[in-house]
Amino acid sequence: MRAAGRSGRVRIWDRVAAWDPGLLRLTAGLRTVVSIALTLAVLAALGAPVPLLVAGAIAAMVATFAIREKQRHRQALTLAIGLPVALVSVTLGTLLSQYVVAGDLFFVALMFSAVYSRRFGDRGHALGLIGFQTYFLSLFVHATPALLPKLYGVVAVAFGCAALARFVLLPQTPAGTLDRLRQAFRARLAQLIDTQIELLDAGPEDAEKVLEELRTGTARLHETALLIQGRLEDGTSDETVARLLQRRIADAEIAAERLGLLLLTARSAERTDTLTLHLPGAPLPSGGELPVRDEARAELRRDLKALRLLALRPAGEAAGTALAHVRNRLLGYREEENLPQAAPAVQDVFRGLGETARAALGLRLALDGPQDESEDSPATARSREELDAEDAAIEVSEETEPKDTEPGGLRRPTTRAAVQIAVGSSLAILGGELLSSQRWYWAVLTCWIVFINTASTGEILVKGYRRLLGTVLGVIAGIGLAGLVGHHTWTAFALVLLLVFAMFYTAPLSYTLMSFFVTAALGLLYTLLNTYTAAVLVLRIEETALGAACGVIAAAVVLPIHTDRRTNELLVTVLDRLAEVTRAAVDQLSGGFGGDLVEQARELDQALADLRAATQPLTHPITPMRARRNTARYVVALLETCAYHGRSLAATAELLPTHPSIAADPWLRGAGARIVRNIETIAAQVADPRAEGEIETGPSIASMLEPGTLRTPRYGRVTDRVLRHLQRLDEAVSGLARPLGLRPEASPAKKR
User: If we measure between CA atoms, which residue out of 63, 83, 91, 84 comes closest to residue 150?
Assistant: First the structure.
C-alpha cells in the first residue's frame, strides 16, 4: 500500500512537472501570494486601516512580479533600488493628483520613461514597472499628503515582505530551476511516449484525435527544451557542462520526434511527411491501423513502455537487473541482427526505439552521472563508448562579444514603443477624463499593458481584444463575488489572494484568463474600499475598451510597425538561421568544420518561436481573412519542418568525429549547396519583393548520392538518415516557394 501510494504521488508530481515546466508558474503565483499575505499580516498587526491594507497588497504584488533577473544577487540589488523609486513615485503621485494638468503631463512622461528604460535590460524594465505601478497605487487608494508618512511605511513593509518571500521562504536559484526543468523534460518525454503508445493501438476512428495529441506533446517537449537551453548558462557549473546538457537534451528531443514520425509512417501506405506533425488540422496519412502481426504489436507496446521507464525515472529510482535488461534490449535494436522479422516500416520503428533509448541513456548519464555497467550487453557497451567519445569531443568555443545590431534613434524598438505609449496614454487620459474624472487611470493602465511584450499593430489589437474580453467576464464574476462577500474584510482578502495566484499561474497560458482574474480581484478591492457599485465595474469595461482603442490608434499612426512588416523581418531572420545551420551541418558532414552546431540550431529555434508569436494576429480565430490565416499557418508549419530537419542534420554532423557508421562525404557539399541557395533566394525575395530569383530544381538528393551516379570514388558511407533529412529539407524549402510567391526555375528544355 505504501509503495502504491508513493507511486501515485510520483505520477501526480510528474503530471504537475509536465504541465508547468520548472514549476515556474507555480512558484510565481505562490511567491506573490505569500508576499501579499505577509504584508497584510504585518499591517493588520500594526492596526492599519483597510485602504492601507489594499495599498500594501498592491505594493507587495508589484515588488514581487517586477523582478525578472535570474541571479539572486542581482534580484536583491534591483529590489533595493526599487524601494526608493517606489517611494518617490508614490510621493509624486500623491502630490500631483491635486494638479490635473501637471499630474497628467508627469504621468505621460513617467510612462515614456518606464517603457524607454527597457533598453537597459531586466533591471531597467523592473524599475520602470515599479515606478509606474506605484504611481498608479497612489491614484487607486486616493492618497493624500497627510497619508504619505503611513504610505511610506506600507511600501517599505511590502518590499521587505517581498524580499522575505523571495529569498527565504520560497527561494529559487538558477540551478534549482534548471533541475526542475530537467524533471519537466523527462515528464513531457514520458507523456509523449504515452501518446505514441496510444497511436500504436488507435483505430481509424480515434487516430485523428491521437495525432492531435501527438502534435501537442511534441510541441510541449520542444518548448521545455528551449526553456532549458535558455537557462543552462546560469544553472550549470561551467560551459562544458552546459554544452553537454544542451547536446543531450537536443538528441532526446530529436529522437522522440523521429520515433513519432516512424510510427506514423508504419501506419501509412507511404512515408509520412514531417509536415504531418507540424500543421494543425493536417489529416493522418492513409493506411488505417498499424499493419503488423499481433506479436510485433505486443513487442512494440512492451518496448515503448520500457522506453518510458528508461526516460522518466532517475537512476536512484530505477536501478537493478530489470532496468539493465530493458536497456540492453532496447539498445540492441541499433544492431541489424537484433531486429524482429517484420515489414521494413515496422523495423524502422524498432530502430527508432533503439536510437531513442540511446538518447535517453545519454540524457541519464548527463543528468545523473556514471551508472553501474556490470549488466551491460555488447550493444549497450558500444552505445556507452560512443557517448563517452562524444562527451570527450565537446570543446568550449571562444566567447564573442554580442554585436549591438539594434537600430538607433526612433527606429530603436524601445524608443518607438515609448513614443507610441506616450501618445496613446495622452489620448487615454483625455478620453478617460470624459468618462470619469475619478477613475480615468483605468484607460491609461490598459493602454500601458497592451504595449507590454508586443511589437506590431496586429499584436496590440489582439492583446487589446483579449484584455477587453477578460475584463467583461471578470466584471460579471466581480459583481457576483462582491455580493457574496459583503463586508467580510478578511474573506474578501482571502479571495483576492486566490485570484492573484490564479492570475499569475494562468498568465503565460492565456491573457484573457489573466485579465478575468485581475478584474474579479479588483471588484473585491473596490468592495473593501467601500467604493463598489455595479456602475463602477461597468465603467471599468468602458475605460478598458477606450484604453485598448487608444493603444491601437497610437500603434497604427505613430511610427507604426505593421504586422506584415514585423512577420517578414522575423521570417527573414528564420531563413537566415536555417541557411546557417544547413550550411554548417553540410560542411561538417562533407569533411569540414561547422562550428557550434547545437548552438546554431538553438538560435534557429528561438527565431522560429519569435515568428510563431508574431503571427498570432494572422492566425487568430477573429482574423477575417481566412486564406491569409491558412497561408500563415502553412508557412510556419513548413518552417517547423525545416527546423526539425536542420536540427537533425546538426545533431548528426556533431556525431561525425566519434560515430563509426558516419563518415565524411565531400559530395554532400554540392548536394546541400542547392538547398542553401534556395533558402537564401526565398529570404531575399521576402526582404525585397523586387529581388529577382528562382528556386532551383533538380533530381532528388538521394538519387544524386546513390552508388554508381558519382564520377569520383566516395569516402566512406553517409547514413540513410542524413540523406533522408536532406531530401525532406529540400522538399520543404521548395514547398515554401509557392505560398511566398516564388516560382521554380525553368527546366533546361523550356529554356531552350
Answer: 91
